[in-house]
Design a protein that fits this description.
This protein has six helices and no strands. The longest helix has 25 residues.
Length: about 130
């Protein structure tokens, strides 16, 4: 479950960053960010009401791969921002697990709230990366 939340956070972060496609003269971190953004777009467009949470697992796995690559490509000065994203993603993962156990309005609302926290942490990461990409 932790892996799923981390992936979800990373995807959300990549989408929220809103960084335009990186040019060829930019560092690898920009390509990694673009890949994470693309995966996040797939997740955001998933119809959970119709298909449930299960189809998100493959996309979350891809997001984990994208985030791992993004983390490896990012400068060490971004470590605090990545730590905040991971913490928010872990909270999102816990909320998702609870919503799977009891899919009621309160648990789904908690997922929405923790997703918002992931978005905020991703915006902070994006702000920190804005000079790079």
């Amino acid at each position: 479950m932790r892996r799923m939340s981390t992936w979800m956070a990373v995807l959300t972060a990549a989408t929220i960053l809103g960084v335009a496609g990186c040019g060829t003269d930019q560092p690898p971190v920009c390509d990694s960010l673009a890949a994470a953004q693309a995966t996040m777009n797939h997740i955001r467009n998933a119809n959970v009401a119709e298909n449930g949470l299960a189809p998100l697992e493959a996309q979350l796995q891809q997001l984990n791969v994208d985030v791992s690559r993004l983390r490896a490509d990012a400068a060490t000065h971004l470590a605090p921002e990545f730590a905040a994203v991971k913490a928010a993603a872990d909270q999102l993962s816990a909320s998702l697990a609870a919503a799977r156990e009891v899919p009621d309005a309160a648990h789904l609302s908690a997922v929405r709230t923790t997703l918002g926290a992931v978005q905020v942490s991703l915006r902070s990461l994006g702000d920190a990366m804005s000079d790079t990409c």
